[in-house]
Design brief:
Blueprint (H helix, E strand, L loop, with lengths): L1 E4 L3 E3 L3 H9 L13 E6 L3 E6 L4 E10 L3 E6 L7 E10 L3 E10 L3 H25 L4
Antiparallel strand pairs: 1-8, 2-8, 3-4, 4-5, 5-6, 6-7, 7-8
């Protein structure tokens, strides 16, 4: 199992607000790189998108724990098997620390090819999350 951890994002919003934002699957479109993603579709509990020149991936909500953990899992129609866990931690001054953890089932060849792009993607998503909630 391959593990990829994003940089920590410091979001200028209370934990409940960030949690609500991240449990709405439509909002993931705001976190993905527009130039590498197309055909974004969302429903109440899942979203899918096509990654430029590669696969269409599909993720569904796999459960939440209070307002600190969100778990997404790849749908059966997704070519890659992985989970994406989002951990939220309340910090001072009504802000929230957010970090993404991916656990992917990648063979050694695919791991070599995909590790850096996936790391960049999850860091990008964390960075975008900071920008969605600008300084108050």
């Amino acid at each position: 199992m391959t593990e990829i951890t994003s940089n920590k994002a410091q979001v200028n919003a209370p934990i409940n607000e960030v949690f609500i934002f991240l449990t709405d699957m439509n909002n993931y479109e705001l976190l993905l790189p527009k130039d590498n993603i197309s055909q974004f579709k969302a429903s109440d509990d899942s979203f899918s998108c096509k990654i430029e020149n590669t696969y269409t991936i599909s993720l569904k909500n796999n459960g939440t724990q209070s307002n600190t953990d969100i778990s997404l899992i790849s749908n059966n129609d997704s070519p890659l098997r992985f989970t994406l866990d989002v951990k939220l931690e309340e910090t001072d001054n009504n802000s929230t620390s957010v970090q993404l953890f991916c656990h992917a089932d990648l063979n050694p060849f695919l791991k070599m090819m995909a590790m850096k792009p996936l790391q960049n993607l999850f860091n990008y998503m964390a960075n975008r999350l900071e920008k969605v909630f600008p300084d108050n």
